[in-house]
Amino acid sequence: MRLSLLISLALGLIVSTVRAAADNDTRGPFNPDGWFGRTTDVCIIGGGASGTYAAVRLKDMGKTVTVIEAKSTLGGHTETWTDPASGQTVELGVETWHVTNASMRFVDRFGIEVEYGLAPNTRDMLFVDYQTGRNMVGGVGYSLNDILAAQANYAVQRAKYVNLSSGYYLDSPVPEDFTLSFLDFAKKYQLEAILYFFYLQQQGGSDFLRQPALYVLKEFDLDRVVRSANNVTMRAKGQMHQIYDLALQELGDDVLLDSHAVGFLQNRRSNNKPSILVHVENSSSHELIMAEALLITAPLTIDNLRGLYPDPQETSLLGKFVPHYYYTGLVNSTGLPTNAEYNFAATGTEFHIPEVPGLYWLRSTNITGVFDFKYGHNTTDISRQAIQDDISAKVHAMHTSGDFNTTGDYNPQIIAFASHSPFGMQVSADDIKDGFYQQLYAEQGQRNTYFTGAAVAGHDSGELWDFTEAVVSKIAAAL
Ligand SMILES: Cc1cc2nc3c(=O)[nH]c(=O)nc-3n(C[C@H](O)[C@H](O)[C@H](O)COP(=O)(O)OP(=O)(O)OC[C@H]3O[C@@H](n4cnc5c(N)ncnc54)[C@H](O)[C@@H]3O)c2cc1C
Ligand SMILES: *[C@@H]1O[C@H](CO)[C@@H](O)[C@H](O)[C@H]1NC(C)=O
Ligand SMILES: *[C@@H]1O[C@H](CO)[C@@H](O)[C@H](O)[C@H]1NC(C)=O
Ligand SMILES: *[C@@H]1O[C@H](CO)[C@@H](O)[C@H](O)[C@H]1NC(C)=O
Ligand SMILES: *[C@@H]1O[C@H](CO)[C@@H](O)[C@H](O)[C@H]1NC(C)=O
Ligand SMILES: *[C@@H]1O[C@H](CO)[C@@H](O)[C@H](O)[C@H]1NC(C)=O
Ligand SMILES: *[C@@H]1O[C@H](CO)[C@@H](O)[C@H](O)[C@H]1NC(C)=O
Ligand SMILES: *[C@@H]1O[C@H](CO)[C@@H](O)[C@H](O)[C@H]1NC(C)=O
Ligand SMILES: *[C@@H]1O[C@H](CO)[C@@H](O)[C@H](O)[C@H]1NC(C)=O
Ligand SMILES: *[C@@H]1O[C@H](CO)[C@@H](O)[C@H](O)[C@H]1NC(C)=O
User: Fold this and answer.
1) Considering only CA atoms, which residue is closest to atom 5 of ligand 9?
2) Alpha helical stretches, state H, 82-174
3) pTM above 0.85, yes or no
4) Residue 172 beta carbon below 6 angstroms from any ligand 10 atom
5) Would you report the helix, strand and coil content of the chain in percent, each value rounded to 5?
6) What end-to-end distance do the CA atoms of the chain give, in Å?
7) Alpha helices, DSSP H only, in 85-175?
8) What letter does residue 212 receive in the DSSP assignment?
9) Contact, 469 vs 102, CB < 8 A?
10) 24 in ligand 2 pocket by Cβ < 6 Å?
C-alpha cells in the first residue's frame, strides 16, 4: 500500500471535514501525527443487526475489525426499554427473528435462549378512525374469509419470487409486477382484503399504496404471511437486546461507540490491495483508521457515504434512495382501557388506510397504563413534540367520541422515544425498471468496499444475517 499517497490525500480529507465544524471545535489545534489510529482488516460502518453480525463473524474467521457506531450501544433498531419502577421490559424495536441458518447460528453463538412463534397476544383488537376518534365497529370491512382468500392470492404471487427472500436479486428485465404501485398490484390479484393489515405490519412511513409492489413483496415472504401457523419465527426468552450486549462485551475496543465516520478515502491507484482511510470522530477526538476493506451497513444516505464516491455516476446511483421516517416509543396516562390495541384506520379513504404522517397504533404493554406507539412519515423528519401533540389530539378525540370505555383524567405523555429514521430506503419504479438493484449489487466488493443492511437486503434480521454471511465470506476470501 502507498502510505505516503494516502497521508497526503488524508490531509485534504481532514481539512475539508474539519472545516465544517471549525467554529465549534473544542479539540485543540490540528496535529495530523496524533491522528493515525489503528489499522484493521475490516472497518464496519454501523453496529446494528448486520454490522454486529458481520463483526462477530469476521473476528471468528480470524480477521481484525473496527466497528463505527453512531449511538452509545450496538443493536440499531433493536431497543429494549426497562421500566425504572418495576424493572419490566418492553421491546420498542425488533421483537422477533426470522428462523434462518444465520439467525440460528448467531443466537447459538451467544447462548441466547429462544422461544418459537410470535409473543402471545391477548389484547382486544380495536380500530379507531384516525380523524374522529370513533370506534370502527365493523373493523376495516372484510370478513375473515375475505382475508384468508386474499392471503392465498398473495401467496400464489409471492411464490413466483422465492429469490427475493435472499435479497433484491432481480431478473433482467425486471418483472413488470414489481414496478406496479402496490395498489395496482393488489387490484390485479384481488388482494384488497389484506391491504390494511399489510399496511399495519409494514409500517415505517412509506406511502403504502403507492410504493412499488417490489417492496411489499420483499417484506412479506411466504414465511411471514403464514408465520402464526408455522415455526418460522423466534424471539429471545429474555431481552432482544441481550445478544448485542454480549457481542459488545466480546468485541470490546473493536467498537467505537458515539462515533461517526465523517469521510472516506480510497487509495485507488494501488494495483492489488487498495487501502481505505476512514476519518472517524466523536465528541472529543478524531481518528484516522486504515482498513483493508470497508463494510457499510448504515443506511445508504449520501451523508453516510461522503468521500466514497468521487465518481458522479456512483453518487447518482446511491443518491436515488429515498428514506422514510419512523418513530417508536411509549406513552402513559391515556385513560384508555388496557389489554387492547387501538389500530388507527380511516373511514373515508381507500381501503381504510390513513394518510401519513400518522400514528399506526397505541398498544397496551405489560406495564399497566403504558402503551407503545409507532409513528411514520414519508417526506420529512418529525419532532418528538409534534408526535406528542398528535398523540394527545388522537387520545382526546377517543375520549370525546364516547366510543371507548375511557376513564377519568388523561394527559398522555411520551415517556420513551426513539427515532428509527432514516428507514425503509426505496427507489422509484422507474429506477427499479432501469436496473437499480442489479447496478447496486454490481458495486459489491468494488474497490474493497462492501454493502449490507436493510437498504441493500431488506428489513428482516434473519434474512439480513444470511445475506451478511455471504458478504463476510466474500470479504474474508478477498483479504
Ligand atoms: C421499530 C422496528 C421494529 C422492527 N421489528 C422487526 C422485527 O420484529 N423483526 C425483524 O426481523 N426486523 C424488524 N425490524 C427491521 C429491522 O430494520 C431489521 O431487522 C434490522 O434490524 C436492520 O438492520 P440494519 O443493520 O440494516 O440496521 P440497524 O440495525 O438500524 O443498524 C444500522 C446502524 O448504523 C448506525 N449508523 C447510522 N449512521 C451511521 C453513521 N454515519 N456512522 C456510524 N453509525 C451509523 C445506526 O445507529 C445503527 O445502529 C424492525 C425495525 C424497526 C425500526
Ligand atoms: C455551533 O454550535 C451552535 C450552538 O450549539 C450551533 O447552533 C451551530 O450550528 C454550530 N455550528 C457548527 C458549524 O457546527
Ligand atoms: C441453510 O443451510 C442448509 C443446510 O446446510 C443449506 O442447504 C441451505 O442452502 C442454507 N440456506 C441459506 C440461505 O444459506
Ligand atoms: C437467486 O439468489 C441467489 C443467492 O441466494 C443468487 O446467487 C442468484 O443469482 C439469484 N438468482 C437470480 C435470477 O438473480
Ligand atoms: C421449532 O423449531 C425448533 C428448532 O428446529 C425446535 O426446537 C422446536 O421444537 C420447534 N417448535 C415447534 C413448535 O415445532
Ligand atoms: C473518543 O474516541 C477516543 C479515541 O478512540 C477515545 O479515547 C475517547 O474516550 C472517545 N470519547 C468519547 C466521549 O467517547
Ligand atoms: C406519566 O409520565 C409523566 C412523565 O414522566 C409522569 O410525570 C406521570 O406521573 C406519569 N403518569 C402516570 C399516570 O404514570
Ligand atoms: C406521502 O404520502 C401521502 C399519502 O399519505 C401522499 O399523498 C403524498 O403524495 C406522499 N408524498 C410523497 C413525496 O411521496
Ligand atoms: C407479558 O405478559 C405476558 C402474559 O403474562 C407474558 O406471556 C409475556 O412474556 C410478557 N412479556 C414480557 C416482555 O414480559
Ligand atoms: C365497554 O364496556 C362494555 C361493558 O363492559 C363492553 O361491552 C364494551 O365492549 C366496551 N367497549 C369497548 C370499545 O371496549
Assistant:
1) 366
2) 101-109, 144-158
3) yes
4) no
5) 40, 25, 40
6) 13
7) 101-109, 144-158
8) B
9) yes
10) yes
409 Cβ closer than 6 Å to some ligand 2 atom? no
Q: What is the pLDDT of residues 227-275, one digit of tens each?
A: 655 689 999 999 999 999 999 999 999 999 999 998 888 765 555 565 8
Tell me the torsion sign for CA atoms 285, 286, 290, 293. positive
Whether residue 478 contacts residue 445, with contact meaning beta carbons closer than 8 Å, is answered with yes
Structural domains of the chain, ranges and CATH numbers in brackets: 3-78+238-321+431-478 (3.50.50.60), 119-227+322-424 (3.90.660)
Alpha helices in 162-241 (DSSP H): 182-188, 195-202, 213-219, 222-225
Three-class DSSP category at 353: coil
Report DSSP state, residue 179.
G
Beta strands in 111-153, from DSSP E residues, in sequence order = 114-116, 124-129
The three grid cell numbers given for residue 24, joined into one nine-digit string: 465549534
Give the residue ranges of the chain where pLDDT is below 50.
1-3, 5, 18-24, 28-30
- Grid coordinates standing for 113? 435462549
Cα 286 to chain centroid distance, Å, stands at 27
Residue 397: other Cβ atoms inside 10 A: 17
The per-residue pLDDT for range 22-41, each reduced to its tens digit, is 444 555 444 555 666 789 99
7: cell is 497521508
Q: How many CA atoms lie within 13 A of 259 on its CB side?
A: 27
Ligand nearest to the CA of 407: 10
H and E: helices and strands count for the chain: 15, 19
The enclosing H or E element of 389 equals helix 384-401
- The C-alpha cell at 359 is 400514528
Find, among 420, 364, 409, the residue nearest to 387 by Cα.
420
Cell of 4: 505516503
Ligand 5 atom 14: residue of nearest CA: 231
